[in-house]
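User: Working on a comparison across species. This one is CU044_5270 family protein from Lentzea aerocolonigenes. Can you predict its structure so I can line it up against the others?
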Amino acid sequence: MRDEARPVEDETVKWAMSDVAPMTDEAFARGRAALLERIDSDKVVPLRRRRRIPLVAAAAAMVVLAGAALLAPSLTSRTSGPNVAVAEVLTKAAGLTGDAKLQPGQYLYVLENARWSMKDYRYDWMYLQDQKLERWIPADRRGKWFYKITNVGGRQWLIGSDADLPADFQSPIEAEGEYTSEGGPALHDKIKANFRDPSPEYLATLPLNPRELYQKLVGEVSGNEGAVFLQMVSQGLDSGVYPAEVRSAVYQALTYLPKLEIAGSASVIDGRTGTALGVTENETTEQIVINPSNGEYLGSRTVLAKDAWGLKQGQVIGTRSVTTKVVAGVGQTS
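Assistant: Here's the predicted structure for CU044_5270 family protein from Lentzea aerocolonigenes:
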């Protein structure tokens, strides 16, 4: 007789034995017990602890208006350990992350292509707007940072048209232009550092143990273990400057996100394709996209999980991509 239902693990055992003769209860129990022993022992997500290097990072606090619900289940909601399939993808990516090396006088060029979703609360109208956000971050990250924001193309209407906008409508996305800041946004704006916008001191406090890091980040979103958590992670990684050891720990921390599932192959706005991992709540799925062959974070997506508001399931209503390069000076892109 089998004990309480554990559907993810049960399906994994069945898949693993799909090519053999019909399984007996005894065979199922043996396979399932071996799998659960591996999961509960945390062997699925090994991590070698390494020395932390304080860095300053900036994250554009731009939120795709996709209507994700705020949920706050307990930190103990996944008692059986990490999702096996998710853990396999993320643990492989974690072991492959690398860092860009800057010499004095060089800059880290971070290019973020974004497709923001704008709507009213009744979904009488909805459109997409593309932007290019560029940052030049000095090797000495307490120096001067340079930013450039460019709108790309016009509004891409999904619901309604310009005629449906209110007369006093002002776009909530950041305006085009160029500006600078000393030491990055976290220091320049004097805001409380967080995962989206870390200071050197904040980075130095991040635990590299996946479970501890997960619990710390859950605390930053008031206990949320769903789409809001994944949005925070993607916005932080969009900065393009988290060191490899932190990205590695973040990937493994994500294995503890209860609703995180593999969504399959997906492309971000710049056309690069990787493996999407997502959390579905209400009408939408929030996704991050990773290249599992080299551990590179490619960007994020918001996708309709079902037909809604007159749009079809699978419609992408927001996506971002991030690339980084080492360049010799401000304004250079290669």
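For your comparison, note: The longest strand covers residues 144-159.

User: Helpful, thanks.
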